Amino acid sequence: MDTTSRLIMLLEVVEQGSFSKAAELRNIDRSVISKQISKLEEELGVRLLNRTTRSFSLTAAGAEMVKKAAELRLLLQDTVQMAENYHQEARGLLRITSSSYLGKYYLMPVINDFQKRFPQVTIELRLDDRVIDMVSEGFDLAFRVGEPRDSSLIARKIARNRMLILATPQFIETYGEPKKMADLAELPAAAYTSNHIRFESISYIDEKGKQQEQPINPVFKSNDGEALLEKVLSHNAFCTAPAFFFADHVDHEQLVPMLTDVNLPDYSAMYAVYPHRDLPVRTRLFLDAARHYIGDPIPRWEHNIPRINEIYQPK
């Protein structure tokens, strides 16, 4: 391993916050990371880290080296991308990260078709509902609901993302159909919940054009869309969710939209996110394929929802 590689390894240790997490990122033993950082300190003739048994801190020299390492990594990435752009054909490794449900049901068909067209492209798909650091973890594309918080990343809208209030016909028969938003507070609900998102109320626009929040009664919470679907299909709860989650089941009349005269604002749109504008051929072609399959010009799931342009719209 050369000095450049060791500098980038130091950067990863700092970004990940520990030797163990940096080792996990590279799928190597923690001791390898420790030895390489020690060798880097020997090569440079300066201490970079103050270490204890449980933590570390950067020295002044270490902080400066980390800045240089970040610049070096960016330069290397740009150099590789520049070289790849001279290829006329898509080839090489394409690393994609996505939320689990979106990846399974909407990206996998794109990936299968794409690799038939471009067999020299290897694709790694990482399904993870946590928001990752694309640059430090080396991903080319991310597909997410909502714009990225990192302003250095580039976000391209893939599709709009409407909200629905859904229940099974059996649920409505048992509990009665709500006539107004306030009725929802008395009904059992299934709600998406994660470290960053909690659906404990429903946003809607009232008759005066003002946004309101209607509290709901979540009796079941999960960070997995399939688990929420299973709960709703058990006829024991209703759910409010983005349309792409449950569109097929609305089409097959397993789920029925409720309170369709209410004006529900869209949930955050779906975006493709990438770190550089100068995309390699394989990344650019895959992005175009994903946009065409998922949302060009109408989101794929909206084709499966009857009267989608009539329900939950301003009156």
TrEMBL record:
Belongs to the LysR transcriptional regulatory family. SUPFAM superfamilies: Periplasmic binding protein-like II, Winged helix' DNA-binding domain. Gene3D superfamilies: 3.40.190.290, Winged helix-like DNA-binding domain superfamily/Winged helix DNA-binding domain. Residues 1-59 form the HTH lysR-type domain. This is LysR family transcriptional regulator. PROSITE patterns: HTH_LYSR. It holds the Pfam family HTH_1. Keywords: DNA-binding, Transcription, Transcription regulation.
